């Protein structure tokens, strides 16, 4: 279904695109980042906070690290300090890259079991599906942020995966 190589490529893409989106958002003032723009998580900052929360939640399931705490409804406000968010975003991207770099073929087999706060019950799914979900979730919400940034007059860089630099 997916391979460790695919995961590493997606981790590199995630890091490159988070830098792209966050750098663009960093050109806005705090009020512009926090302005409600009608997205599911309201603002650019709220959506980026939710995205980081999601990455930390999935990574806690994959590598056994600490989950971020809170639930989906708390996630837009979880990382409200911009400077602290930037630091945590970069550290999380390094964590995802390190994890993906260590994956071996068998690491993507089997099932993952966790309690889903969103569903209010225990869930069991194939590990490979869960890994694909993390990367898909990232792309989905970065797309929302990209649209909000564009509407705010900021033009993020390219997003096409074939343009990704080799050195990520």
Q: What is this entry, summarized?
A:
By secondary structure, the chain is mostly helical. The protein has helices at residues 4-25, 30-34, 44-63, 75-78, 82-102, 127-151, and strands at 111-116, 121-126.
Order of helix and strand elements from N to C terminus: HHHHHEEH
How far is the N terminus from the C terminus?
Answer: 24 Å
Strand content: 5-15%
Walk across the major sheet and give the strand order.
1-2
Rounded mean pLDDT is 96
CATH architecture designation: Up-down Bundle
Model regions low in confidence, pLDDT < 50 over at least 5 residues: none
What fold name goes in the CATH topology slot? Four Helix Bundle (Hemerythrin (Met), subunit A)
The coarse silhouette is globular
What would you note in describing this structure?
There is one protein chain. This protein has 168 residues and is mainly alpha-helical. It has one domain: Up-down Bundle (Four Helix Bundle (Hemerythrin (Met), subunit A)). Helices cover 58% and strands 7% of the residues. It contains six helices and two strands; from the N terminus they run H-H-H-H-H-E-E-H. A two-stranded antiparallel sheet has the order 1-2. The longest helix is centred in the last third of the chain and has 25 residues, at 127-151. It is globular and about 45 Å long. The two termini are 24 Å apart.
């Amino acid at each position: 279904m997916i391979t460790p190589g695919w995961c590493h490529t997606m981790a590199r893409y995630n890091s490159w695109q988070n830098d792209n989106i966050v750098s663009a958002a960093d050109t806005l003032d705090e009020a512009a980042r926090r302005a409600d723009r009608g997205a599911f998580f309201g603002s650019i900052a709220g959506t980026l906070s939710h995205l980081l929360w999601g990455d930390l939640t999935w990574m806690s399931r994959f590598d056994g690290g600490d989950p971020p705490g809170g639930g989906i409804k708390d996630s837009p406000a979880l990382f409200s300090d911009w400077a602290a968010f930037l630091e945590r975003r970069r550290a999380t991207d390094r964590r995802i890259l390190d994890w993906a770099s260590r994956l071996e073929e068998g690491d993507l087999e089997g099932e993952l079991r966790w309690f889903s706060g969103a569903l209010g019950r225990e869930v069991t799914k194939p590990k490979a599906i869960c890994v694909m979900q993390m990367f898909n979730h990232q792309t989905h919400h970065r797309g929302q942020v990209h649209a909000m940034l564009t509407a705010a007059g900021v033009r993020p860089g390219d997003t096409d995966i074939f343009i990704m630099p080799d050195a990520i």
